[in-house]
Design goal:
By secondary structure, this protein is mainly alpha-helical. Among the domains are: 119 residues, no CATH class; 145 residues; 132 residues; 120 residues. It is built from 38 helices and no strands. α1 packs antiparallel against α2, α7 packs antiparallel against α8 and α27 runs antiparallel to α28. The N and C termini lie far apart (105 Å). The relative contact order is 0.03. Keywords: Cytoplasm, Golgi apparatus, Membrane, Protein transport, Transport. This is Vacuolar protein sorting-associated protein 35. Belongs to the VPS35 family.
């Protein structure tokens, strides 16, 4: 039904416009004929009848504009006729008097303005007198739409005839003061007409009227544009005359649409230097606007213009400082917010975003200003808890992101004491997202966090990432949890300071925060701390730090021990074992035997008490053996204890093949080429024990499956024999190699042995290697010469 009514209304508008256009065209035809015949009386008669069509109240502003433009074009032709009429001896004063005999006021005034334009141009009368008369006479039309278009016509035809500085009409025709007075008076009356539109008609058509008013707003705004183009309007006149009069009209009209549009016009049409010198007056009007006016956008545009002005003209920066622009803008922002207690939170935060953007562009070096803006925003947010409005949240993120993007340095942002306070008001997910952004900035710029205070400040910003808090979802359900914690772990390696004492304090501070983060985070974040501390230990070792140093390697190892112990709450025994072994190796490099022994002890205890999975035991055992083989710090007694433990646990693994491989790996614990332990007998003992276990594995396979398994273990042991044989281990004689070769040959030819192409290829490759060594003419060839294949 509504759609049908709308179609009908639109059709009616088209019909009314067509009828009016036809009458305008009809009368214009007779006017043209009269003009061609130099018949002034008929020309005025038909032009008045043509202009009478503008008296209609039926048309919408859009349709009325089309009718007005058609009439405007015809009036231009009439104006040329009036000029020619003066050449034929008729005075402009006579014409000016004659057109006032038109019957209706609207046609009369259009004709009067048209003649007035010619009158001013002829200079037969001072421009100021004619203009004053025209603007006063135009008050006779008080219908909003008709009056607005009439005054728009007056402004249009007079704009090039104002007695401006340097104008041909200046002097006897008046001064720039007269020009300004004329435009201001016309502007004031037009604004009153425009505002009056809002209060005419039924309440149900309010939206329609507002739409129509927005269509007409440029008619009013053109007056301000004319003022801005006057050469004689300098800063003094603008400050003392123009701005006060315009602002008075803006404030007193008490109309939301008019106030917003006119404030926007003032900001856009007048020069930046004028705004700078009249900032207090302009800002003083903002709190006086209606509470429904979008003041935040108005002020944001003003701040944006001023900051662009400074960016394009750096020389004006001293002027900005002189007028105390920041202080005035900051005060005005707070006054606007206080004056509008019902302003939505998003509006208030948007104002702070605009103010902060201005501050960062104009006063980037004044961190106290930046922090002051953040503090004002925090005061507004205080007591509200977590912000739930998505639009306000978006603005808070924009506020927090601005300093990061401007300084491109998180360390600078950490100096802003109000930054974390504002960030606290973000909901959990948004806060966490902001924390991730901060870490990414640090990583991107490779920013070093080099003091305990900065670490504390940074972790305060990142607390939603590094510790549990109210409102957190279950971490198992949280998206991207592992990626986020990996980012935190990477961050640890940028916590650095060349001063040993400060670096150790940084590690302790980071550990305190991480250990409060809950068991699920520890396994992802603590390892990075351990490796950062190990790197620190090696730096201390390089600098020859001793126990008397402010921070000694021993002290760092004590810290490492405590840190890894905290993983027991997770629990993560396999990870803890790996970290203990890393620390043991580092302690060995620092020549700290008791410390290295303690770390190995902890690793064995974890193996005994916590690691029950057979696959995990295999991995752990080989890690222990490999680490123990690389450590060279132990004396005979401690080394015997540890190697005994390692070989003992190797032989107790669940599966025979795993036992075999672990035991022959233990052989490396007794032979070190770098001048360490070289006990050939114990090497041989390990290899023989591995061989017995391999035989037992074959028997188990035969008993359970009816056939022996492949000879994989035998070939692997053969390769170990060959390794030590080449190294010249006395106990590993060629006869032992020969015996093992024959055993493998016998097993491979046995029908009970399972066939495996990979094992056969492995054995064939080993045989080719032996053959190649036999063919050498050096010591290797001589050593391998006794082996028969």
């Amino acid at each position: 039904m509504a759609a049908a009514d709308a179609v009908t209304a639109a059709e009616e508008q088209d019909k009314w416009l067509a009828d009016a256009m036809a009458l305008v065209q009809h009368n214009a035809f007779f006017m043209h004929r009269a003009l061609d015949n130099n018949n002034l009386r008929d020309a005025l008669k038909y032009s008045a009848q043509m202009l009478s069509e503008l008296r209609t109240s039926k048309l919408s502003p859009q349709k009325y504009y089309e009718l007005y433009m058609k009439s405007f074009d015809e009036l231009r032709k009439l104006e040329f006729f009036f000029k020619d009429e003066t050449k034929r001896g008729r005075t402009n004063a006579d014409l000016y008097e004659l057109v006032q005999h038109a019957g209706n006021i609207l046609p009369r005034l259009y004709l009067l303005i048209t003649v007035g334009s010619v009158y001013i141009k002829s200079k037969e009368a001072p421009a100021k007198d004619v203009l004053k008369d025209l603007v006063e006479m135009s008050r006779g039309v008080q219908h909003p739409i008709r009056g607005l278009f009439l005054r728009s016509y007056l402004a249009q035809v007079s704009r090039d005839k104002l007695p401006d500085v340097g104008s041909e009409y200046e002097g006897e025709g008046g001064s720039v003061n007269d020009a300004v007075e004329f435009v201001l008076q016309n502007f004031t009356e037009m604004n009153k007409l425009w505002v009056r539109m809002q209060h005419q008609g039924p309440a149900r058509e309010k939206e329609k009227r507002e739409k129509e008013r927005r269509q007409l707003r440029d008619l009013v705004g053109k007056n301000l544009h004319v003022l801005s183009q006057l050469e004689g309007v300098d800063l003094a006149m603008y400050r003392d005359v123009v701005l006060p009069r315009v602002l008075e009209q803006v404030v007193n009209c008490k109309d939301e649409i008019a106030q917003y549009y006119l404030m926007d016009c003032i900001i856009q049409v007048f020069p930046d230097e004028f705004h700078l010198q009249t900032l207090e007056s302009l800002l003083g009007a903002c709190p006086q606007l209606q509470t429904t006016v979008d003041v935040k956008t108005v002020m944001a545009q003003l701040m944006d213009r001023l900051s662009n002005y400074v960016a394009s003209t750096p020389d004006v920066l001293p002027e900005i400082l002189q007028v105390e622009a920041f202080g005035k803008l900051s005060t005005a922002t707070m006054k606007v917010i206080d004056a509008q207690p019902d302003m939505p939170l998003v509006g208030a935060v948007s104002l702070f975003v605009a103010l902060l953007t201005f501050t960062l562009r104009v006063h980037a070096d004044r961190l106290d200003y930046v922090d002051q803006v953040l503090g004002a925003c925090f005061k507004k947010l205080e007591g509200r808890g977590k912000v739930k409005d998505s639009k306000a949240t978006k603005q808070i993120v924009a506020l927090l992101s601005a300093p990061l993007e401007k300084y491109n340095d998180v360390v600078t942002v950490l100096k802003l004491t109000n930054y974390p306070r504002v960030m606290d008001h973000l909901d959990y997910e948004t806060n966490k997202s902001m924390a991730v952004t901060i870490i990414q900035f640090i990583m991107k710029n490779n920013t070093l966090i080099s003091s305990v205070d900065k670490v504390e400040a940074l972790f305060e910003l990142l607390k939603e990432l590094i510790k549990d808090s109210e409102g957190n979802p279950a971490l198992d359900e949280a998206k991207d949890f592992q990626e986020e914690q990996n980012l935190v772990a990477k961050l640890v390696h940028l916590l650095k300071n060349d001063d040993d004492t400060e670096m150790f304090k940084i590690l302790e501070a980071a550990t305190k925060h991480f250990t409060e983060g809950g068991s699920k985070r520890l396994s992802l974040t603590l390892p990075s701390l351990v490796f950062s501390a190990l790197k620190f230990v090696r730096q201390l070792q390089f600098r020859n730090a001793t126990d008397e140093s402010p921070v000694s390697p021993k002290k760092v190892f004590q810290y490492l021990h405590q840190t890894i112990e905290s993983l027991s709450t997770v629990p993560a025994p396999e990870l803890a074992l790996r970290l203990y072994l890393q620390c043991a190796e580092a302690a060995s490099d620092c020549d700290l035997e008791p410390v290295a022994y303690e770390f190995f002890t902890q690793a064995f205890m974890l193996y005994e008490e916590e690691i029950a999975d057979s696959k995990a035991q295999i991995t752990a055992m080989h890690l222990i053996i490999g680490t123990l083989q690389r450590t060279t710090v132990f004396g005979v007694e401690n080394r015997d204890t540890l190697t005994h433990k390692a070989t003992g646990y190797s032989a107790k693994l669940l599966r025979k093949p795993d036992q075999c491989r672990a035991v022959y790996a233990c052989s490396h614990l007794f032979w070190n080429d770098d001048g360490g332990t070289q006990d050939g007998e114990r090497v041989l003992l390990c290899l023989k024990r591995a061989l017995r276990i391999a035989n037992a594995a074959q028997q188990v396979s035969s008993a359970s499956r009816g056939s022996s398994g492949p000879v994989t273990l035998f070939v692997e042991i053969l390769n170990k024999y060959l390794y030590y044989f080449e190294k010249g281990v006395p106990a590993v004689a060629s006869s032992l190699v020969q015996g093992l070769l024959e055993l493998i040959m016998t097993e491979t030819q046995s029908e009970k042995t399972s066939k495996d192409a990979a094992v056969d290829a492995f054995f064939a490759s080993t045989m080719r290697y032996i053959q190649s060594q036999k063919q050498k003419s050096d010591a290797s060839g001589e050593r391998y010469g006794t082996i028969q294949i």
